[in-house]
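thread: overnight batch results

M.L. [08:02]
morning all. the overnight job finished for the chain we discussed friday. pasting input first so we're all looking at the same thing
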Amino acid sequence: MSSSDALAAHLEWEPFAHRADCSKPVWEVDHQIVYGKLRPRHEGAEHACTNEECGHGDRHDRITVRLLCRACDTVRLIGGAEHDTETTTTARIGYGQAPKRVAGLWLYPGPPLLRLREYNTPGAYLCSREKVDRLSEEDIVGAVTEGRGKRGATVWHAAIGPEFHPPARGLSGYAVWAKNSGEKSFTSVTAAAKWVAAELDATTDTEENT
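M.L. [08:03]
and the structure it wrote out:
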C-alpha cells in the first residue's frame, strides 16, 4: 500500500472557520433530508439525465447539513442532491485516532489496507517529529506503509523526505519520497519507524557537516 490514502485522510481537508472574535468555537451539526423534492423551474433547466435508468426526473432527494455556532452566531449551510451518507469509525477512515509515540516520532494512522470488515488496523502511518492537532505538509517527515511478504505475511516499508504534489484533474494529492527502504522490509511498525528516525538523523548530520 502506498501512503496516498493516509495523506488523503489527513491533508486536503479544511476546517470551517468561526468569526475571529468567537469566544467558544464549537459547531453544532445537524442534517435534514427531503425526499422526492420537486426541482422548481427557476432553479435551472429541466432535468435531462444521460443515465437511461434514472427515474427521478424533476424530483430528487436533497440533503442539507447545518453547522451552527451559538457563540459567534455563525451558520453554515451545505446542500446537495443525490447524496450518499455513511456511518463509520475513525479506524475505517484513518483520521481522528490518537497518534502514537514510536522511536522518537509521532505516528498518525491512516485507513486500513483494504476496505474489508476484517481490516481494522492502519495500513500506513505518517511520521511527524512533533505532536500536532492536525497534520500539515510541513509536519510530515516520513511514512510507514503495510505490505505483504513471503506467504502473505504482513511486512512494513518506510520512506522519508516527501515532495508533495497537490490534487489535480480530479485526482487526490500524493507525495514522492526522497528515500525509501526499498526491498528491505520490517516485521513491525516499530522497526520501520526506527529506520525512519535513523535516516532522518543521518540526513540532519549530513546537512550540518556540509
